[in-house]
Specification:
Helix content: 40-55%
Oligomer: single chain
Strand order of the largest sheet: 1-2-3-4-7-6-5
Length: 256
């Protein structure tokens, strides 16, 4: 992941919104810009927003509960690290946000929306005071083609997960009759998720077209190399999963 202007701080946390796992990164750069990135762990989909200090202060003023940029950043960091019950975050789709707005109408007929559906996400920072609750929305744009640094970060995470999974499988294989069908189903589902994520990474890294600087071409080749390694490790995981399925079938047949 890349940030311009020099990073003052960067915090990445695992979070679950509406039963979906995400990686959430909050960073502040020296030119008073707040950067928010969200990655869906199951398929690698990414959303990002860059917000100037003026933008942040404007949206807080519109809520009637004005916050200076520095205070807002501290509130957001406190929320994502879950250090206080008075501030927390949620991640909403466009439809989720519309439903939330309609609830505030309290029975009034909602005005027809003129905005077409979009693939944005909205990170909602909520400040719960003693007698009031304020929502600060941060719109995040879907990244069709993430930059090479973001792709590399995702690939490294993917490889770390691949490295960890064979070890888990080995402990089950050593148990012989302890093979659990639920574990096999979980491995198959995880393998499908990995395949989907790698396909998306391939399309993002390899579909960017030609041209660009020499440095960009070198980064692209590096990403392609990492993707090839991921495919090999993914195939190895699939083979091990299939071997365990056959082993279980043989074990079940021996008891019949």
């Amino acid at each position: 992941m890349s940030f311009s202007g020099g990073v003052e701080f960067s915090e990445t946390v695992d979070m679950v919104f509406h039963n979906v796992e995400y990686l959430l990164t909050v960073a502040a750069v020296k030119d008073d810009t707040l950067c928010v990135e969200v990655e869906q762990k199951s398929d690698g989909s990414r959303w990002r927003g860059d917000f100037t200090s003026r933008y942040i202060e404007d949206i807080t003023a519109k809520t009637g509960n004005y916050k200076k940029y520095g205070v807002f950043v501290k509130m957001l960091l406190t929320a994502v690290t879950e250090e206080s019950d008075s501030v927390f975050v949620d991640l909403l789709t466009y439809n989720d946000l519309e439903l939330l707005k309609n609830r505030k109408l309290k029975g009034q007929a909602p005005a027809p929306s003129r905005n077409p559906p979009n693939n944005k996400r909205y990170l909602i920072l909520t400040y719960a005071a003693e007698f009031d609750r304020v929502h600060y929305p941060l719109p995040l744009i879907f990244e069709e083609s993430p930059d090479p640094e973001s792709l590399k970060a995702t690939i490294y995470r993917l490889r770390a997960e691949l490295d960890a999974r064979p070890k888990t499988g080995a402990s089950h294989r050593g148990a012989n009759l302890g093979a659990d069908p639920a574990d096999l189903r979980r491995l198959r589902e995880e393998n499908m998720d990995l395949k989907a994520e790698i396909r998306r990474l391939e399309s993002g890294a390899l579909g960017g077209g030609g041209g660009g600087s020499e440095q960009a071409q070198m980064e692209k080749k590096e990403v392609e190399r990492e993707l090839r390694l991921c495919r090999k490790e993914r195939d190895l995981l699939a083979q091990k999963c299939e071997a365990r399925e056959k082993e279980l079938e043989q074990m079940e047949a021996s008891f019949k």
